[in-house]
Amino acid sequence: MLEVRIRKKLDSFTLDVQFAADGGVLALLGASGCGKSMTLKCIAGVERPDSGRIVLNGRVLFDSDEGICLTPQQRRVGMLFQDYALFPHMTALENVKAALGHLPRRRREAEAMAQLERFQLAELFARTPDRLSGGQRQRLALARMLAAQPEVLLLDEPFSALDSHLRDQMEREMIRHLQGYAGDVVLVSHDRDEVCRMCRQVCVLTRGRSEPRRTVQELMASPDTVSAARLSGCKNVSSAVRISEHTVSCPDWGFTLETAAPVPDALTAVGIRAHHIAPGAAERNSAVCRVAQVRRSAFSVLVTLLPERGEGEALTMELSPEEWAAQGEAETLAVHIPPDCVLPLTGGGL
Amino acid sequence: MDWYPLLNSLRVAAIASVAVFFTGIAAAHYIARLPRAVKGVLDVALTLPLVLPPTVVGFLLLRLLGPRHPLGSWVWDTFGVRLTMQWWSAVFAVAVVVFPLMYRTARGAFESFDERLAQAARTLGRSNTYVFWRIRMPCCRQGLIAGAVLSFARAIGEYGATSMVAGYTPGKTATVATEVYQLWRIGDNETAIRWVAVNIAISAVVLLAVNLLEKRERNR
Question: Residue A231 is inside which H or E element, if any?
Fold first, then answer.
């Protein structure tokens, strides 16, 4: 169990994060530069928060009121750095041995070798990191971190340094290794798909502020803030005004939309996922749009729509190639949005 | 030809370089952690000898070490030793002039060090001593060695401050640089040219070593 509550003044905003991880992998999801890495560094003890409290399995790592601040060495927190921070002047074996300071000197070599074997790196024991592939480097960093027997793992964008074809393989490996790990894991990411595949719980971070923890399914099904919607991959977000319990007006699109979910008083925007916009007119939430641009990606077509009564704000619609072909290259298109697909959003950041 | 000036130059340069190697690294390491304002002031103070004329450095050193000045007179009264006009007096002069070279190269090496490596080692449970000796120093090794060699090269060639603090006594405080000046003054061009050749040879070898080190650094 890891409980974190920290505040720290940074150059352009104040980090104000609060979350708890209890079992499984918790994701910290946020855009780059939102304070995710700094949060991990504060937990690991290499940065010091201005105030707050960090408790790991009942052990107080940091408490500004009680004046407790354990050193990184005392914390037993494992950190996987974004580009792995392998020691460039040491071989793979020496890198792992560097994590075995808690063992008697004569046992380190054998234990390090055994750890390399567990990660399929035994044959590469004499290589320095610059002579390892990207995947091998990540495996070595993981092996080294776990060799120190940490009580919690902090993973800082673990796949961002990898090519996309390697990413899938390393992700599978990582999931396998994490399943055999008893402690909590915190994964920092800006990639919602990665978070969906690897985590069950997620905590959204916007400019240093954390939102309450929820399950990944909840976030994807009903993001309730502008930044959560954006991070969950919602391509269409526009400012909106509440009209009634189930109606909102979106002046930029020129829409008045019915919503299935109740509209909160604090509504600032609505979100519509690109694949929830359907071609064809309907009784409710229907509009005529001009087709401004068509982009074909591998397995879908992204259509940029300009609502005829809007203020020039575009919408992105995602269709399968077959669905788009059925529209016959139309220049204007009637579309509709089912009321249960309109996401009422609060908070700033438009 | 009397080889004493060469021997003296080499030993003065070697002692001064070793002293400056450790003090320069220590200064670079500790000053890097100080608050920005203090850092700026100390940085200027420690780099000043690099740009000051060596005669100014020599003058200031005499004001400190001279027999009628604070440190010099105290050492004379206590130990009966004169700090100036000895062969080893040149070590003070050379060390002060050369210190900024070592300090700045070491600082550059430490600044280009990836701090995350130190952070990683600490989260792996390693002490700060381990981090310094087994991570930081090896990663900065090339830069530090290059700084030491460069300091040595400059130390061999120091003239201005040395001639003021140690003077020129043949067979006692003469160095290659002061010897050349003396030979030129008395018009013995033949011997002077030989010393000039010796000096150029040593400096060229040392600079070659610096270049090789830097190339190895880039190839890593």
Answer: helix A226-231
The minimum CA-CA distance between B121 and chain A, rounded to whole Å, is 7
- Tens digits of per-residue pLDDT, B51-62? 999 999 999 999
Q: Does A48 lie at the interface with B, CB-CB under 8 angstroms?
A: no
Render pLDDT for A261-306 as a digit per residue (tens, 0 to 9): 899 999 999 999 999 999 988 888 999 999 999 999 888 999 999 9
> What percentage of chain A's residues is helix, strand, coil (to nearest 5)?
30, 35, 40
Quick one: tokens of B132? 């310094």
Dihedral sign computed on CA atoms, order A310, A311, A316, A322: positive
Count the neighbouring beta carbons within 10 Å of the beta carbon of residue A50. Answer: 13
A69 phi, psi to nearest 5 deg: -150, 95
Task: Give Cβ neighbours of residue A29 (< 8 Å, ≥ 6 apart).
Answer: A189, A190, A192, A195, A202, A203, A204, A205, A219, A231
Sign of CA dihedral A49, A150, A116, B131: positive
Predicted TM-score (pTM) of the model is 0.81
Beta bridge partners of A279: A335
Q: What is the dihedral of CA B44, B13, B20, B159, to 10 degrees?
A: -10
Q: Which residues pair with A345 in a beta bridge?
A: A269
**Interface residue of B33, B113, B115, B123 to substitute, partner A, most A CBs within 10 Å:** B123
What is the signed CA dihedral for A160, A162, A164, A166, rounded to 10 degrees?
-140
Domain range summary for chain B, segments of one domain joined by +: 4-219
Order the strands of the A286-296 sheet from edge to edge: A278-279, A332-336, A286-296, A301-307, A315-319
The residue written with tokens 């005829």 in the block is: A308
Give the CATH architecture of domain B4-219: Orthogonal Bundle (1.10)
